[in-house]
Amino acid sequence: MAAENENGETGAQAEKGKRTKGYGSGDVSTVLSVDDVAREAQKIAGDAPTPAVLDGYVKGDTFLSIDNLRAGYGAMEILHDFSLRVGAGQSLCLIGPNGAGKSTVLHSIFGFTNIFGGEISVQGQKVTSKKPNEKLRDAGIAYILQDNSVFPNMTVEENLWMGGFLKDRPDEAKEAAEKVFQKYDRLANRRNQPAKVLSGGERRLLEISRALVMNPEILLVDEPSIGLEPRYIDMVFEILDDLQNAEGKTIVMVEQNAKKGLDFADIGYVLVSGQLAKAGPGSELLDDPDVGRLFLGG
To answer: What is the pTM (predicted TM-score) of this model?
Structure first.
């Protein structure tokens, strides 16, 4: 019979009890639980950056802006007086504890939430109340979902055509799909195969490429690395880097791998309880001791 400790646990049970879910790696002596992260993050939220400070992180003119946004689902307000600034061709990564409202920011920009107050603008034009289809067609905002959203029984080519559902003519979608195939051999080699045969990384590439069919200027990317093996995570971020730096796309992302997201992004925002707690260049937040302790496992 296995020996028990003073709590009546066997060695295996005690070891299992030391493990906890959180940010980073290690046992309970080195890892903060998700609840601990939320409590500790709340302590750094007292001195939020002002819109004037946020303006200072923008390169050139502000392209996408959010001012004092209050938004949520049903009657529940998730975001409280949230503001954001990003310039054309810049990237911004949102990090924070679970339930902080990160994905709600993307949902609000694209039109998936109830807006209780504040404004969202693209190039100075208000788009707050526009519907998702209008934001894609008229404001050039595309949303790349967190969940697997390919149509598994449709071919890769047919999935791309679906990205052009707002085009005036079907031929326009097909022409845009051909440009995608010219750019990405991985998809071109499988154009006539059902999407269900793709690897996780290839499916993510297809989701990103489908959003490109409408030639958007702003990409909202929700958890690009979620569920992917490390080699595919690197591939996806290389694709996003090319879209930003070679094609001039503006990228706003939520990324659960905070280190990867901040390393990629020009600007980083830390959200806590639906409010902006910290902001700065991505490289600067990587070196911030509070951010490191709470979100980077250091």
So the answer is: 0.84
The answer to whether 184 and 206 are in contact (CB under 8 A) is no
Provide the token pair at 46: 């007292």
Sole residue written with tokens 């707050």: 128
DSSP-assigned letter for residue 48:
P
CATH tag for 48-295 (out of 3.40.109.30, 1.20.1260.10, 3.40.630.30, 3.40.50.300): 3.40.50.300
Transcribe 74-108 into DSSP letters.
Answer: TTEEEEEEEEEEEETT-EEEEE-STTSSHHHHHHH
Give residue limits of the domains in the chain.
Answer: 48-295
Residue-level pLDDT, tens digit, the chain, 298 residues: 445 454 444 544 444 343 333 444 444 344 556 666 666 666 666 678 999 999 999 999 999 999 999 999 999 999 999 999 999 999 999 999 889 999 999 999 999 999 999 999 999 999 999 999 999 999 999 999 876 788 999 999 999 999 988 887 878 889 999 999 999 999 999 999 999 999 988 999 999 999 999 999 999 999 999 888 888 899 999 999 999 999 999 999 999 899 999 999 999 999 999 999 999 999 999 999 988 888 886 5
Among 5, 136, 120, 126, which Cα is nearest to 68's?
120
Residue 2: exposure state from Cβ atoms within 10 A (0-12, 13-18, ≥19):
exposed
Residues 6 or more apart from 271 whose CB is under 8 A from it? 82, 94, 95, 96, 100, 101, 102, 105, 277
